[in-house]
Amino acid sequence: MQTISSRLIILLLLAAVAAVFQGCGGTGGKSSSGGGGYGYGDGPPPKDVDVTNIPDAVPKVEPITKAGNKSPYEVFGKTYEVLPTSLGFRQRGMASWYGNKFHGQSTSNGEAYSMYEMTAAHKTLPIPCYVRVTNLENGRSVIVRVNDRGPFHGDRIIDLSYVAAKKLGYSDRGTAQVAIETIDPRQYQNNSVEQPQIYPQPSVLPSTQPVAGNDQPLLSKSTFLQVGAFSTPVAASSLSQRVQGLTDYPVVVRQLDQPKTIYKVLVGPVSDSVKLLNLSNLLKQRENISTFVVYE
């Protein structure tokens, strides 16, 4: 017999309690169809989390587990059937998130839920699978690993971990309109692992050239924006692909071997200071990336 996740048990019990309160005319806090992105007394972690350097989930080929994939299954009187494959799946709708209340609880496939990892819950996608989620209100996107079932309240189509929701910019509001599309791990790995665009790190050169008069400030042809630095080429390639979708400037990964191997993601070169500032603002707004200028 398949084990039901402790998160789902809690949801069922609290939904029953909420129904009693609603029947008595009280609100009982946030109901299963309330306006908040999280319900049943859930909330963010005790301390604020800087998600700037938290990498997306990296798609990899994993077997579909027996745990978490019982089909059909029933929740709140509604029957759901798990899809036989995640390939080609797309969906638009409301996303929510779950956090502190379920931190450490078992997900539908028996893993421990962590609000600090890039994961998600979906009602019908096979577990595990990988999904790109795009916030349609600000254009930000993340990749998450689906390892849980839900959400089962309202019209929400996906429940993200707290950090994933914060990276998408809706953790404070609770919900957002999103588009989701599944990722084929084989194709992803072929694009980002077997053939990464990695080049040796050139020497750092002096700063920008001096500007005379009121002419438009021009930068050295070797001016770049650094958008990230990682210990693995996979994480660097993942970020480079996301950034490439936001700009016409080249996005490359530089490998630096001293004092230890790191992979830096750079955008450029950019020869105009105004365009450099606009690009930096765009990346901050769309992907919450804090950039800084480097020279080659």
Q: How would you describe the overall organization of this protein?
A:
- The structure is a single chain.
- By secondary structure, the protein is of the alpha+beta class.
- The chain folds into two domains: 182 residues, Barwin-like endoglucanases (Beta Barrel), CATH 2.40.40.10; 94 residues, 2-Layer Sandwich (Alpha-Beta Plaits), CATH 3.30.70.1070.
- It is built from five helices and 13 strands.
- The chain has a six-stranded mixed β-barrel with strand order 3-7-4-6-5-8. Strands 9-11-12-10-13 form a five-stranded mixed β-sheet, covered by helices on one side.
- The radius of gyration is 22 Å and the shape is elongated.
- The N and C termini lie far apart (60 Å).
- 35% of the residues are buried.
- About 18% of the residues have low confidence.
